[in-house]
Structure of HNH endonuclease:
Amino acid sequence: MREIRAHLQEVLGEAPSQTDRRVRDLRDHFRAPAKKINGEYRYVLEGWAENRTNGSRKAISDAIRAQVLSPQRCAMCGRTPLDHQVVMVVDHKVPRHWGGSDEISNLQPLCEECNAGKKAYFANYDQYADAIRQSAEHPEPHGRIGELIKAFRGDWVPAELIELVASMKQYQEDWRKRTRELRLLGWTYETKKRKDPKTSRIRVWYRVTGWKPWPEGSIAAEVRRRDPSNKRASQSDR
Ligand SMILES: [Zn+2]
C-alpha cells in the first residue's frame, strides 16, 4: 500500500485517501486480498472477484435509498438538511469491502461530513479488511470477537471495531461481556483507555496476548459451563 500510494501520488497527484478508495474499488472486479509479507501488508492478485456483476457495483435501488434517507436526520450528528443545510447520503454501517451487505439493516442516513469522517477513520483499518471479513463469518459472537483480536496479532484493536464485528450477524449489546468471557476459555488480553482530545470521549483498545483453540461444539455452552457464577447449574448438568 505504501508503494501504491507513493506511485499514484506521483503519477496522478492524488491524496492517499483517494488511493485507498481506488484499491477498494478494485475489489469489485478482482480478488486481491492484503497479505502480511515480511511485516508489511501487500496486495496479491488472485483472480476475478466472485460476485462480479457485469464489472459494475450493484447500486442500491431508489426505493431502498428513499427509505433509508426518510428520517432526514444524520444518524451520527443529528443534523438535518432543513435546519443545517447538510447533504444526506446512504452509508453502509459495515463497509461493503469488509463484508457489509446492502440489506436495509446495514444502511443508515449520514450527512456528507460524518460520512467522510467515518470513511477516513475506517480507512485506518483497511489493511485488516480480509481479517474482518473472515472473523465476521464465525457463527458465534465469541468466535467473531476472538478471531478479530487474534487477527490483529498483538496490535491494539479499537473497541468500536470489536462491537461492529461482533454485531455483524446480529446486534450484540453484550459484546463487552462476550469479550470478557473469552478469559473463561483461557484467552488473555490487555486493554488501554485514552481520552480522545477532540471529542473528550474515553476510547478503549484491546490487545490479545494469548489464545486457545475453540471448543468443539457451542462456544456459548462451554462458557456457561466454565462460568463460576453458573456453578450450581453446571453441577446439576452432570
Ligand atoms: Zn452528521
Observations:
- Residues 74, 76-77, 79, 110-111, 113-114 surround zinc ion (CB under 6 Å).
- DSSP finds eleven helices and nine strands in the chain.
- The two ends are 54 Å apart (CA to CA).
